[in-house]
Design brief:
The chain is built from 18 helices and 19 strands. It is of the alpha+beta class. It has 3 domains: about 160 residues, Sandwich (Immunoglobulin-like); about 190 residues; about 180 residues, 2-Layer Sandwich (Alpha-Beta Plaits), CATH 3.30.70. Strand 16 and strand 17 form a beta hairpin.
């Protein structure tokens, strides 16, 4: 690789360097004969693509003021030297690179030929061709010129060669480019160029279509699941898509073909935004670690600095801005890879996914930055490596995002469960159970839906707690829950309404028989201690139930009545299963002034303790054969 440098002639070192270059060029041209120049003439044949980067002579105009007329009036051998395909040109703001080509058409060639410069980031290219009249015609393209005004609009500059039979075509190319870069040049037939462009646009279209589908899917997922992480990732993927379209020339051709200034600014501006967004995505996916908190802050703020850096790039001189962008993107690559590595090192599998996704994109970015800074010549990898890296990175990062989102939703679900479930037993809390109780009572009153509400007391809980301690008491509660789960249906609602009291809501129950059966099974199961359990503790249950079809009161009244019914049960009662009796229908008075009221009779019909005297007397399960568990 060679470097052609623009010494601006402002310092002693610059003057000496120019003198050395001129002496070297003059000494070389003393031995450069016209016969050797004749060998540079390219004979173009049909159905071929020829790399003509090393088939020209070149000269750098330090001041950039020479016109084509002035150039051709000067003997070529005094200015031009053979070019090299790998030469990286650092022209700066003022200098211009001149290239000279000589083409001739093969006698069998009938196809049209095109001169191509497959480097979308070149600022300005002007091609001069000597016509049949002896006058020079010029055509201009480049990303500082509106693509709509190019002679051949496309992703990069291309010019039709005015070849004539049996004649040599003299072609001069004037190139201006602020950043350092190599300049690939091809000569292609129109047919071969069309086939190649179709393949290129097909590949680019497939990649863009997949990215757009992914962006739409992320937006929809963010809307459906109310997860902003997917929305931010969709914004990041959109920024990357725009950046890739700008670097490959697709955006200049199809999106902003009438904005030459923005077309020149967009690759660097969007590249910085994409780099900062990538670092923020990596920071979000890697989460918060207990170590290296300061490094995580550095990664976050360095990624957030992408927007200010992009704005500064739009204001400063282009050569300074290109250097600033290169340093920033190198920092993004280093910090992003380090962040992913640290996450993977602490045995977080998401770090592995982020590292695998970021690796190809980091390599493509380094190659591209090296090409823009002039460290390596432009190549297929520098032109399309970003697209390849993006194709690999976006799906892998989406997998990492799905894994991280699943973890966070799991944590949120557990946090929500803590507010609705009892921490010890996993049953519904008293508040949630009372809400369900209220809903089922309202449905029973409005739609006559059958249901039963049952309260269950672990009677010997306080005895166990006093004599055996809190751990054994909590163990007894857990054993009670296990026994309850075994006899209940999946649709039944169970809650812990007090320290040692459980509530059941049994929907679809129209009689007391199934409730009595469940209660008998529970009482019998509680009296069977587990084998090997130390201490040998049995569980004694009292059960109070109410059929909502028999009670028309509110949930507060039924709740109080069930609590009173359990309270009035003796510890050694022979009737541990009791029900609230149906409410009696009272006849309406014949006259409003009949004087028949509660004050006269002394009876309080609203008292919940009234049915206690006529409680249903169930058969004690101990007097029967215990059912099989």
């Amino acid at each position: 690789m060679q470097h052609a440098v623009n010494p601006k002639g402002q310092t002693l070192l610059g003057l000496r360097w120019r003198q050395v270059m001129l002496l070297f060029t003059s000494g070389f041209l003393l031995f450069y004969s016209p016969a050797m120049l004749a060998q540079i003439t390219m004979v173009l044949k049909d159905s071929a693509e020829v790399d003509v980067s090393a088939s020209s002579t070149m000269w750098i105009d330090l001041q950039g003021q020479t016109s084509i007329e002035q150039l051709v009036a000067t003997p070529r051998r005094e200015m031009f030297v053979p070019s090299n395909a790998d030469t990286v040109y650092a022209l700066g703001r003022h200098a211009a690179l001149w290239q000279h080509y000589r083409f001739s058409r093969s006698t069998l060639s009938n196809d049209e030929w095109v001169l191509e410069f497959p480097q979308p980031l070149l600022d300005k290219i002007t091609v001069y061709q000597l016509g049949a009249s002896g006058r020079w015609s010029s055509q201009t393209a480049g990303d500082t010129v509106d693509v709509s005004s190019w002679p051949e609009p496309g992703r990069y500059a291309q010019f039709r060669l005015e070849l004539r039979e049996a004649d040599l075509l003299e072609v001069y190319v004037r190139i201006q480019n602020v950043s350092s870069t190599s300049i690939p040049v091809k000569a292609s037939t129109r047919n071969s160029q069309n086939r190649r462009l179709q393949k290129e646009y097909l590949a680019i279209g497939v990649v863009f279509g997949a990215l757009l589908l992914l962006i739409v899917a992320c937006v929809a997922q963010s809307w459906v699941y109310r997860d902003r992480a997917y929305g931010w990732y969709a914004l990041y993927a959109a920024t990357l898509t725009l950046t890739m379209s700008a670097w490959t020339g697709v955006a200049g051709h199809l999106l902003w073909s009438h904005a030459g200034a923005w077309n020149d600014l967009a690759p660097g501006f969007l590249g910085v935004l994409a780099g900062g967004a990538a670092l923020l995505v990596v920071h979000h996916l890697c989460g918060v670690g207990s170590r290296h908190i300061w490094f995580e802050s550095v990664v976050f703020w360095f990624g957030a600095a992408g927007l200010p850096v992009a704005l500064v790039y739009a204001l400063v001189e282009r050569n300074v801005g290109v250097l600033m962008i290169g340093l920033y993107l190198i920092g993004v690559v280093a910090l992003g890879m380090s962040r992913a590595w640290m996450t993977w090192k602490r045995r977080d599998v998401i770090g592995l996914w982020v590292f695998a996704a970021f690796m190809p994109m980091a390599l493509a970015t380094l190659v591209l930055v090296s090409s823009v800074l002039g460290f390596v010549p432009a190549s297929w990898l520098s032109r399309y490596g970003l697209m390849v890296g993006l194709t690999i990175e976006v799906p892998l990062l989406l997998i990492a995002l799905n894994l991280r989102s699943r973890e966070r939703h799991s944590v949120e679900a557990r946090a929500q469960a803590l507010s609705s479930q009892d921490a010890l037993t996993g049953l519904l809390t008293a508040t949630i159970f009372q809400d369900r109780f209220k809903q089922i009572v309202q449905r029973a009153r409005r739609y006559k839906e059958p249901a039963a509400v049952v309260y269950i007391d672990l009677v010997n809980y306080r005895y166990i707690k006093t004599n055996w301690g809190m751990p054994v008491a909590e163990q007894s509660l857990l054993r009670s829950v296990i026994k309850l789960r075994r006899i209940l249906r999946d649709v039944d609602t169970v809650g812990r309404v007090d320290e040692a009291r459980f509530g059941l809501i049994l929907e679809g129950v129209t009689s007391r028989t199934p409730v009595t059966s469940l209660a008998a099974q529970l009482i019998a199961a509680g009296l069977m201690p587990l084998k090997g359990l130390k201490p040998d503790v049995v569980l004694q249950f009292h059960v109070a139930g109410a059929l909502l079809g028999e009670r028309t009161g509110s949930e507060l009244e039924i709740n109080q009545a069930l609590s009173d019914l359990l309270w009035h049960m003796g510890v050694r009662t022979r009737r541990p299963i009791r029900f609230l009796e149906p409410e009696l229908t009272r006849p309406m008075p014949l006259e409003t002034d009949s004087g028949f009221d509660e004050a006269e009779t002394g009876e309080d019909t609203t008292s919940p303790s009234a049915p206690f005297t006529t409680a249903h007397q169930a058969v004690h399960p101990l007097n029967q054969t215990p059912p099989k568990l």
